[in-house]
Amino acid sequence: MAGPADQLVKPGSGRGLLDVYGDRFLLKLLVRKEIKVRYRGSVLGLLWSYVKPLVQFLIYFVALGIFLNLQRGTPNYAIYLFAGIVLVNFFTESLSNATRSVVDNRDLIRKIYLPRELFPVSTVWVSAAHFLPQLLVLIGACLVVGWTPSLLQLAAVVLIFFMVAVLATGLGLMFGAVNVYFRDSENIVDMIVMIVTWASPVLYVWSMVERVMGPWYWLYQLNPMTVAVEVFHWAFWEPTLKADQFVADTMPPDLLTLWLPVAMLITLVVLFLGQLTFRRLAVHFAQEL
After folding, report:
1. 66, 204, 214, 217: which has the fewest Cβ within 10 Å?
2. By the 8 A CB rule, do 230 and 206 touch?
């Protein structure tokens, strides 16, 4: 029979994200709490998950698709644009909220012990709850224009969702921990969020970047969000094109065979570094908060 000393756990020596899985009931409670708090007193509630991306889409479509006439060289530009917007919104919302999650839950952290990773992870799941309604709207719009995806493309959608969620979790753990000590992290993340929309082929096609960067185009492809958006376009936009609508180099070369595995590897490295940073800094969260 184990004695009391055998049950003691040294602070900071938990199992990290494995503890989150072990306390998944607490994770569900935190997700529910975050959703209720966020929409407390709101008339529309979760309907804002539709309104915000719709307004964003309309602004970009009018400004870029109509005024700058990008839709002329990009068939079904509305589908192309919206597919990128919903994915980037999922990432940016997850990262922004995960960065603030530990500080926002300071009162809870001071009072009881629970795996600190629960807070960044719960915000990613809340963002996923906002992402799914947008995804349904995207699927509906694609079906209207004749979307005929393959099983491989449908599988790619699921894979990219989890890859982006893992990427946001890794960065959220890193910046969420650093933010406890240096509040400047929130401003850094705000800049990253602003850059990501323009550093991924959401508002333009990838070939424009290749023409500008030339032999250095591979640096652009090292961004996991770039690859994620390109795969989303391959899964949602490409199957809506008719035979006479295909443009030259619709998708980047070696997208699935080279760049997707590279993006997944980088994502796992980010998750590892994020978890490592979080565990080292989490020991003194209660004192710093």
Report:
1. 214
2. yes
